[in-house]
Amino acid sequence: MNAPAGKYAWTATVGEKGQIVIPKQAREIFDIKPGDTLLLLGDKQLGIAIPPKTALETLAAMAAKGFGQEEEKNE
After folding, report:
1. Residue 28 forms part of a structural domain
2. How do residues 24-71 score in pLDDT, each as one tens digit?
3. Less Cβ around it within 10 Å: N or C end of the chain?
């Protein structure tokens, strides 16, 4: 069965320390390098999601913008 373009599925085994290895193909496709910080989102019903690195960058930029606006209001 062929997956739709841009859609992927992999499996990973959880080790004794709770660590998983991200498959090589996934690391290559999503440009995940050693030392990168990943954001994990969890929902008890839906499971765990690891959004792309750009989502973490976008979230940080939104937070920084929001904090800057709060400082301006307080002045």
Report:
1. no
2. 999 999 999 999 988 888 999 999 999 888 887 888 888 888 765 555
3. N
Backbone angles phi, psi at 42, to 5 degrees: -130, 145
Helix extents (H) in the chain: 24-29, 53-74
The alpha carbon dihedral of 59, 46, 30, 16 has a sign of positive
Domain tally, the chain: 1
Q: Which of 55, 26, 24 lies closest to 38 in space, CA to CA? A: 55
* Within-domain flag for 2: no
Q: Hey, what are 4's tokens?
A: 């739709």
Give domain status of residue 22, yes or no. Answer: no
* Residue 42 falls inside a structural domain: yes
- Report residue 27 CA to chain centroid gap: 12
Q: Which one-letter DSSP state was computed for residue 18?
A: S
